[in-house]
Design brief:
By secondary structure, the chain is mainly beta. The protein has 1 helix and 18 strands.
Length: about 350
């Protein structure tokens, strides 16, 4: 009887210490806060003395100087459910960060945050104001979260993107609204549709080819046939040489795969009639392409003005239609055939 009791105590202790990192000292949580300045902390209600309440609806805002952006770091996290990194979506309790006063708008980091054993990378806003939304359901309350925010200089936009630098797209890349009905999601490992059996999406990313590497994918589960997701690049100047090579890797495995297309656009509004909002189609693939990552290379001519590129996935006829992309670059000179 004594042995059984000791085992129970050990297991409970292990569970209680499973949250990411140790509790920061001197932090007291509250439900709701309007903060401004250069740096600060946000913590869930009742932290650190008790679990957050059920059915919490807490809204926070952070504002920094106009020439700065906001960096968010997740110092402590112990919440119900799991994030996209755990093949879930924080459907019970979660934190969402947006730059509009609307919880349903584009999420900073492109995901909800929750769980207890997922170390999140820092995420950055594009502007100087952010809205933080904390929600909990009516079951399973935990210790909560602590987020540190800080005003920082906006990072330099970069075209080359391997989706490894932080939880979100590379600096300057963004979801194109309002054209997108679904989103490119940052992911590691298999997609949610392949939890039990590999039916769609990649096994790993292309960059690292392991569970630690990230890529983005357009999830077909829960979406309708014909739904579209679009990712637009920052501007890139193609005025230095006569030829450029746009290189990328894409993954189209599954019996329900739709289409993957790339468009070249001059601006968001596209004043030049040769480059409408949708842009000029420069690449198109449809249907299943196997379980391996496919390399795409496009030779582009010199342009008189900076250009952007839209990467667009269209949902096919079933949930077995996840489309993924990774490792996007542009180099000077025309493309060379793989050796």
């Amino acid at each position: 009887m004594r042995i059984q009791l000791v085992l129970v105590v050990i297991l409970v202790t292990k569970l209680a210490s499973s949250a990411t990192s140790k509790k920061p000292k001197g932090v007291v949580g509250r439900c709701g806060l309007d903060d401004e300045g250069k740096a600060g902390l946000i913590a869930s209600p009742n932290f650190p003395h008790a679990n957050y309440p059920p059915d919490s609806v807490c809204n926070y805002t952070v504002t920094v100087a106009e020439n700065s952006v906001i960096k968010f770091e997740f110092l402590y996290m112990d919440m119900e459910d799991g994030p996209t990194q755990k093949l879930s979506g924080c459907y019970a309790d979660y934190v969402v960060i947006t730059e509009d006063d609307n919880e349903e708008s584009t999420m900073v980091g492109n995901q909800r945050f929750c769980g207890y054993d997922t170390p999140f990378n820092p995420v950055l806003t594009k502007g100087n104001k952010a809205y933080i939304w904390f929600r909990s359901d009516d079951t399973i309350e935990k210790e909560g979260f602590v987020i540190r925010w800080k005003a920082v200089q906006a990072p330099r936009e970069t075209f080359a993107c391997d989706f490894e630098s932080r939880n979100g797209y590379c600096s300057g890349w963004r979801q194109l609204e309002p054209r997108s009905t679904i989103r490119w999601k940052v992911n590691r490992g298999q997609t949610r549709s392949s939890r039990r059996h590999w039916v769609t999406g990649p096994w790993y990313d292309h960059t690292k080819n392991n569970i630690g590497g990230s890529y983005v994918f357009a999830e077909a589960t829960g979406m309708r046939q014909g739904d579209v997701t679009t990712l637009i690049s920052p501007y890139f100047s193609m005025m230095k040489t006569e030829r450029y090579c746009l290189s990328f890797w894409y993954h189209m495995y599954g019996s329900g795969i739709g289409t993957f297309a790339i468009y070249e656009v001059q601006t968001d509004g596209a004043q030049d009639p040769r480059f409408p909002l949708r842009g000029i189609n420069i690449f198109l693939e449809a249907g299943e392409k196997g379980k391996s990552w496919q390399e795409g290379k496009l030779t582009l001519n010199r342009r008189a003005v900076p250009m952007r590129f839209i990467f667009e996935a269209t949902r096919g006829n079933s949930y077995k239609g996840d489309i993924a992309i990774d490792d996007i670059t542009i180099t000077e000179d025309e493309c060379q055939e793989p050796k």
